[in-house]
TrEMBL record:
InterPro entries: Glyco_trans_20. It comes from Variovorax dokdonensis. Belongs to the glycosyltransferase 20 family. Pfam families: Glyco_transf_20 (PF00982). This is Trehalose-6-phosphate synthase.
Length: 465
């Protein structure tokens, strides 16, 4: 069996309990094939030279963890700059938040070249390479330029934007050309594949060959949707474990006469948290029976705080929550509990289970795993209702959720009211159907489907051209 090599910006030790579903799922495959996980070490060297970085290698069971330090300049232009000030906002339809500084793309390219240079000597001829996410789009092209003939697949965890938005990136042509150095490109949703196809036809003058095959820039690749799932068994076990049960009991006791609504996200502008809080405000305004009764718990963990847009969204949210609590709060009831922290993963299922409504309302999201976790954590005999944004990749699969347009604050409030008053039988039916689909398309399905497609991809990069 070929060895698997996973490449991603951050590298996780698959043996550590804190590692999430993805680390565990990829770790499983890596353990089976005796593979390698390659990426940034997480270390920033303050005065180091650009385009250089020390390689560290550590054996973790059957898996070799190979990581590289980055100097401050490289980190800031590659990670904060191009990845998180260009690709992240544009791919989430936020052109207004992008800043196209020339130094960013230079650093992005330089770091991808550095990764390719360090990875190339570690590769064996039969290795299958699986590259993850927007930080690494040009990696395969850099490896090919060094003569790499391995099968290389790419999975984009975030959405691929419509052609007209993608084309606003000054380097859009280079980015798409770079994707064609892969044998397989995996996207989260069918809609992303449509955006890819539209670009290939109209912007790259490429050909759509059928069977998910595309030809452009003199290369052929396969591009298809592989909606990522969660490790359902792991999450069920977490739900049954003591920490989650304690959390559930505490919340159920404390809110015994109230209905809980829950949001759990990274504090990212793509997650639609201010709009969600405004919808909750509208709910209290238009349906007064919810006052003193409904409580929104919003957990928003700090993320990318050195990027300006993230400091702005934090201030906006603090002010919104403060205003609602000021306007509607009572001495014995605060409408919004906003917590700017990570909640320990082992407690998350308890919180989900104690909540009558799960609010997953991003303005744009590749998939959104919280939606799937919320469903798995529910008590099947008395499940809560998932309110889900139609702009999350998950909406293509989770059709029995109550779908909303998060920009429509009034409409979202109406749907939340519907969720709060949904009869038990309907809640059970929707929950059963959602759970069945989440179970079928779990993280193992995702990994196996992608690996199978990569093994069978046309692979014309392996013949000398
Ligand atoms: P993210 O935008 O990070 O990932 P998302 O799918 O929403 O993520 O969540 C990832 C995980 O983080 C979930 O397991 C969730 O429970 C956990 N999490 C989030 N906020 C938390 C908090 N405040 N406290 C504790 N845990 C928290 C990107 C894409 C997504 C895509 C994933 C996977 O943006 O669209 O679903 O990758 O491909």
């Amino acid at each position: 069996m070929s060895r698997l090599v996973v490449v991603s910006n951050r590298v996780a030790d698959p043996r550590k309990a804190a590692a999430g579903g993805l680390a565990v799922a990829l770790g499983d495959s890596l353990q089976q094939t005796g593979g390698m996980w390659f990426g940034w070490s997480g270390t920033i060297v303050e005065d180091g030279p650009t385009g250089e970085g020390e390689l560290h290698q550590q054996q973790a069971g059957q898996v070799l963890l190979a990581t590289i330090d980055l100097c401050r300049d490289d980190h800031d232009s590659y990670y904060l700059g191009y990845s998180n000030n260009v690709l992240w906002p544009v791919f989430h339809n936020r052109l207004d938040l992008a800043s196209f500084s020339a130094g960013y793309v230079t650093g992005y390219r330089r770091v991808n070249q550095l990764f390719a240079r360090k990875l190339m000597p570690l590769l064996q001829p039969d290795d299958i390479v699986w590259v993850h996410d927007y930080h690494m789009i040009p990696l395969a092209a850099e490896l090919r330029a060094m003569g790499c003939k391995n099968r290389i697949g790419f999975f984009l965890h975030i959405p691929l934007p419509p052609q007209i938005i993608f084309a606003s990136i000054p380097q859009h042509d280079w980015l798409m050309r770079s994707l064609f150095a892969y044998d397989l490109v995996g996207l989260q949703a069918q809609q992303d594949v449509q955006h890819f196809e539209h670009y290939v036809r109209n912007e790259a003058a490429g050909e759509v060959l059928g069977d998910n095959l595309y030809r452009a820039y003199g290369s052929m690749l396969r591009c298809a949707a592989f909606p990522i799932g969660i490790d359902v068994q792991e999450f069920e076990a977490l739900t049954q474990a003591k920490d989650a049960r304690d959390m559930y009991e505490t919340m159920s006791r404390e809110y015994s006469s109230r209905r809980l609504l829950l949001g759990i996200d990274r504090l990212d502008y793509s997650k639609g948290i201010p709009q969600r809080v405004q919808a909750f405000r509208e709910l209290l305004a238009n349906y007064p029976e919810n006052r003193r009764s409904a409580t929104l718990i919003q957990i928003a963990s700090p993320t990318r705080e050195s990027v300006d847009a993230y400091a702005d969204i934090r201030r906006e949210l603090e002010s919104l929550c403060g205003a609602i609590n000021g306007d509607y709060g009572e001495l014995d009831w605060m409408p919004v509990r906003y917590i700017h922290r990570v909640v320990a993963r082992r407690r998350v299922p308890g919180l989900c289970r104690a909540s009558a409504v799960g609010l997953v309302t991003p303005l744009r999201d590749g998939m959104n795993l919280v939606a799937k976790e919320y469903v798995v954590a529910q008590n099947p005999d008395d499940p809560g209702v998932l309110v889900l944004s139609r702009f999350a990749g998950a909406a293509e699969q989770l059709k029995e959720a109550l779908l909303v347009n998060p920009y429509d604050v009034h409409g979202t409030a109406e749907v939340i009211q519907h969720a709060l008053s949904m009869p038990l039988e309907e809640r059970k039916l929707r929950h059963q159907r959602l759970l069945a689909r989440i179970r079928e398309f779990d993280v193992h399905w995702w990994r196996n489907a992608f690996m199978e497609a990569l093994r069978n991809a046309p692979g014309e990069h392996r013949v000398a051209r």
